[in-house]
């Protein structure tokens, strides 16, 4: 592989929604490898792990999705749902149904893509699933993913868990007070059940103490032209609730392709509750009453995600007690 300069690496990381470091780490190296494949460069099929990954797979998923075939999330990974969508497409156009995207399938895709397109079926499906679950939290499954062994972030997760349980939601934490599973284990845990939402809680860091404030992240890829509708909406809701209820600086919401966001089946959001390298942010999060406010902001943002627009309330005004009056507490 051609040696890239640091500015080139930074530019690539920025374009792919990765953490911008200028260094070719394991994640960046994998993304570079994926980016070199264009649809038609190779035959695509389901294989034993490691599964095929690449921009060609993402292009295939995007084209099938445009035509109404359900590949699931456009993640650039040739898994079971992608194979199933390929088989459905092959059946519909009268070619050999083998789940392999070879020359005949690609030719059919190219011909039909010019004719059949429109809308965003995957986004409509994601919205429909969310709406069909209804506004009550009593039938929702929420996975909370407190980062590393950070005690403050873990405490926020526990406080949030207690409030969600009181409202009837099913809640699972990806780690306990002392253990620290790997990211792969956390993703596997989140995917093992039928979660409605995955919330990953963190403190950010920087090489100096100037950076400060809260930010949220959802799955989105400009390179693949996709993003999670529900993830983006929840990221926006929780960012606004946190910043309306606290004096955290608003560092906004951002689309990223980090594995936790990309590989988690349910809509997933990462929330950075300030910077552990900033004394002011650390002082805020160190206060139990402040962590209570964060927990309430998270619960209200979750509830607002499932409320119809006409039932929603102004940011920062809804309280957990109001949920009883709305008849959405168990």
Written account of the structure:
The protein has 330 residues and is an alpha/beta fold. It is built from 13 helices and seven strands. The chain has two domains: 116 residues, Muramoyl-pentapeptide Carboxypeptidase, domain 1 (Orthogonal Bundle), CATH 1.10.101; 199 residues, Zn-dependent exopeptidases (Aminopeptidase). Helices cover 46% and strands 13% of the residues. Strands 1, 2, 3, 4, 5, 6 and 7 form a seven-stranded mixed sheet that branches. Strand 1, helix 7 and strand 2 form a beta-alpha-beta unit. The chain is globular, with a radius of gyration of 21 Å. The C terminus is likely disordered.
Topology record:
Blueprint: H1 6-16, H2 26-35, H3 55-66, H4 80-93, H5 103-113, H6 121-132, E1 141-146, H7 151-166, E2 170-173, H8 183-192, E3 197-204, E4 214-221, E5 226-227, H9 229-245, E6 250-256, H10 259-263, E7 268-275, H11 279-286, H12 288-306, H13 320-325
Parallel strand pairs: 1-2, 1-3, 3-7, 4-6
Antiparallel strand pairs: 4-5, 4-7
């Amino acid at each position: 592989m051609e040696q890239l300069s640091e500015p080139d690496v930074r530019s690539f990381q920025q374009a792919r929604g990765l953490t911008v470091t200028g260094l070719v780490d394991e994640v960046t190296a994998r993304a570079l490898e994926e980016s070199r494949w264009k649809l038609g460069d190779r035959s695509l099929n389901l294989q034993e792990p490691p599964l095929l990954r690449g921009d060609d797979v993402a292009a295939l998923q995007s084209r099938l999705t445009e035509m109404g075939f359900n590949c699931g999330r456009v993640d650039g990974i040739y898994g079971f749902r992608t194979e199933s969508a390929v088989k459905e497409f092959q059946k519909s156009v009268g070619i050999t149904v083998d789940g392999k995207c070879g020359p005949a399938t690609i030719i059919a895709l190219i011909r039909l893509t010019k004719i059949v397109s429109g809308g965003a079926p995957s986004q409509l499906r994601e919205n429909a699933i969310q709406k069909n679950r209804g506004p009550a939290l009593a039938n929702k499954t929420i996975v909370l993913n407190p980062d590393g062994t950070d005690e403050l972030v873990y405490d926020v997760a526990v406080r949030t868990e207690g409030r969600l349980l009181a409202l009837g939601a099913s809640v699972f934490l990806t780690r306990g007070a002392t253990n620290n599973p790997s990211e792969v284990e956390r993703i596997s845990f989140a995917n093992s059940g039928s979660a409605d939402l995955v919330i990953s809680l963190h403190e950010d860091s920087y090489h100096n103490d100037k950076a400060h404030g809260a930010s949220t992240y959802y799955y989105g890829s400009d390179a693949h032209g996709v993003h999670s509708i529900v993830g983006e909406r929840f990221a926006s809701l929780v960012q606004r609730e946190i910043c309306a209820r606290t004096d955290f600086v608003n560092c906004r919401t951002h689309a990223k392709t980090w594995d936790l966001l990309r590989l988690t089946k349910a809509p997933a959001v990462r929330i950075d509750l300030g910077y552990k390298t900033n004394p002011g942010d650390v002082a805020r999060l160190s206060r139990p009453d402040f962590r209570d406010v964060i927990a309430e902001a998270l619960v209200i943002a979750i509830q607002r995600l499932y409320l119809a627009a006409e039932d929603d309330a102004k940011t920062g005004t809804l309280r957990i007690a109001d949920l009883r009056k709305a008849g959405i507490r168990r």
